[in-house]
Specification:
alpha/beta; 7-stranded mixed beta sheet; binds manganese (II) ion; 11 strands; binds uridine-5'-diphosphate
Length: about 375
């Protein structure tokens, strides 16, 4: 069973990734107590073989006894129905909660007063120092709000350009399903005001890092940085586009999806802090350079709404899963290899071809499909990092 075969169906991905080649037996039994326990229900071959040899001895003794043959047939029938092979047994298609439960680190249901649980998804590559500061900070911040949560670092380990949106899709698919909402959370944004609430977003997506609070981006349709979305809403819009390799616009395309689905974005109100003191943005732009390269027809395609790709088309392998604790904060690191459809998005790798298709060669586009926000550089962007 390979992972790729099952990726088109979200539930299959989540079931079958556990049994795919990417996770060793030792890892999966450690990470998946529920699955390894379920295999205990499967009769061990030694018991079966003992029963078989006892029966065959009886048969040899009374070769013509039809009653014994009847028992043998009934037993074979019984085991076939009740004990399917170990590879299919844990893949119970109708019970989401029976698989993908690798939140073993104790955060599940820590706060009974909170009826929900958040999967904090951090798209990640090469931000070690930021993570060391972020994980303990957010864990303490959410604990003081008594919010059930678990931190997932979705670490892109392939050689392609960074793809924040696809990593968030992977995080959604791989996070435990007892988390009923996700936070799409940048690793370099630290909430500093306890009045920022990370509650279950009952009424639709909740943009914690609102334009009036984010240290850098202030345009009205901005939904990047920190966004809370409940599972059903994320699925409704088919997650994020997979076409955004490199920096920028994937969150604006996601905004277009939410708008089209009539999901209104809510934001914090009545805070005493503003865009300088609500979040700490640990980002030095000379050290952590934004990948603004454009190649092939990237610019033309990514400025438009994507109706082709999303959660359901995300192609990836989970290379390994590591459970760790960062100064007491439990963290699950998913080392992820993204796959790129080079016919659809050749710009996932710009080493061969840098530069854009000339304007004259670009296809015409429906104006309502343009997702690029109209920015006034003076009022909508602060050069903070
Ligand atoms: N990111 C990362 N490695 C990269 C680029 C981005 O881990 O090479 C993640 C990280 O979580 C970061 C987020 O993507 O906070 C957004 O990227 P960035 O901070 O560069 O964008 P900004 O919002 O500052 O423009
Ligand atoms: Mn940043």
């Amino acid at each position: 069973m390979t992972l790729i075969e099952y990726r088109q169906d979200e539930s299959h991905v989540r079931k079958c990734v556990r049994h795919g080649s990417s996770i060793s037996k030792a890892q999966s039994s450690k990470l998946l107590p529920s699955l390894s326990n379920s295999s205990k229900n499967i009769p061990q071959p030694s018991i079966l073989s003992k029963m078989t040899s006892a029966l065959s001895a009886m048969l040899r003794a009374r070769k013509s006894a039809p009653l014994l043959w009847g028992i043998v047939i009934c037993l074979v029938f019984f085991f076939t129905i009740n004990f399917p092979s170990p590879t299919t047994a844990p893949c119970d298609c109708n019970n989401e909660n029976s698989y993908n439960d690798h939140t073993t680190s104790g955060s599940s249901g820590l706060f009974p007063s909170d009826k929900h649980k958040m999967a904090l998804l951090i798209p990640f590559r090469d931000r070690f120092e930021e993570l060391m500061e972020f994980a303990p900070h957010i864990h303490a911040f959410l604990n003081s709000q008594k919010k059930n949560h678990h931190i997932y670092v979705i670490n892109q380990v392939d050689n392609l350009r960074f793809n924040r949106a696809s990593l968030l899709n992977v995080g959604f698919l791989e996070s435990a399903v007892d988390c009923d909402y996700i936070a799409m959370h940048d690793v370099d944004l630290l909430p500093m005001n306890q009045a920022l609430i990370y509650d279950f977003p009952h009424d639709g997506p909740f943009h914690v890092a609102a334009p009036h609070l984010h240290p850098r981006y202030h345009y009205p349709t901005f939904i990047g940085g920190v966004l809370l979305v409940k599972r059903e809403d994320f699925r409704l819009v088919d997650g994020l586009s997979n076409k955004y390799w490199g920096w920028g616009l994937e969150d604006d395309e996601f905004f277009a999806r939410l708008k089209e689905a009539n999901l209104q974005v809510h934001r914090p109100g009545n805070l005493t802090t503003g865009n300088k003191d609500t979040f700490k943005h640990i980002h030095d732009r000379r050290v952590r350079r934004r990948d603004m390269i454009k190649c092939y027809n990237q610019q033309e395609v990514t400025r438009r709404r994507d109706r082709e790709t999303g959660l359901s088309t995300t192609q990836y392998h989970v290379q390994s899963i590591k459970e760790m604790s960062i100064q007491g904060a439990p963290v699950t690191v998913l080392n992820v290899i993204l796959e790129c459809d080079r016919n659809l998005t050749p710009w996932c790798d710009c080493t061969e071809n840098v530069g854009n298709v000339p304007r004259s060669q670009r296809k015409s586009e429906k104006s309502e499909d343009v997702i690029v926000p109209k920015l006034n550089r003076k009022t909508h962007i602060t050069q903070d990092g």
